[in-house]
């Protein structure tokens, strides 16, 4: 698997928890990818979802914590190889970059954006289980 962009030099960590295990305790790659959810994307050992929200602020502003708010937008390539997502909370917009380096064979930013775009307007807390892993694996 070839990686590029800001995640290219980060260590690739293998996670098997997102997949049902095949007999003998090994994860079947096709099964793992088919069952992959948004919550399974990782950057190092940390979950990439939900991201850390940021934005401009003023006196008395209330910041969203974790999975509060509603998904308001998704853009690919900001930063390169990742996504930029926007959310609405307390009548304000906040944004965050989402980067991931695992699990192995994780979908591309374009594929994740395609899945997330159909969920604009939905609560952030309801997006953990959005399926993002239904693409075919390359044959060896």
Brief synopsis:
This protein has 140 residues and is α+β, with helices and mostly antiparallel strands. It has 2 helices and 5 strands.
Strand and helix map with partners:
Blueprint: H1 29-34, E1 42-43, E2 46-47, E3 70-76, E4 83-89, E5 92-98, H2 109-117
Antiparallel strand pairs: 1-2, 3-4, 4-5
Spatial strand arrangement across the major sheet: 3-4-5
Q: Radius of gyration from the CA trace? A: 16 Å
What is the average of the pLDDT values? 77
Class from helix and strand fractions: alpha+beta
Give the biggest beta sheet.
3 strands, antiparallel
Helix run count:
2
The best one-word shape is: globular
Low-confidence stretches: 1-26, 135-140
Whole-number count of domains: 1
Q: How many β-strand runs?
A: 5
Give helix % range: 10-25%
Terminal Cα separation, in Å?
11 Å
Sketch the topology as an H/E string, one letter per element: HEEEEEH
Query: DSSP strand (E) fraction?
Result: 15-25%
Textual characterization of the structure:
- It is a single chain.
- The chain has one domain.
- The protein is globular, with a radius of gyration of 16 Å.
- The strands form two sheets. The protein has a three-stranded antiparallel beta sheet, covered by helices on one side. It has a two-stranded antiparallel ribbon with strand order 1-2.
- The chain has 140 residues and is an alpha+beta fold.
- The N and C termini lie close together (11 Å).
Question: Key terms for this structure?
Answer:
disordered N terminus, disordered C terminus, 5 strands, 140 residues, alpha+beta, single chain, three-stranded antiparallel beta sheet
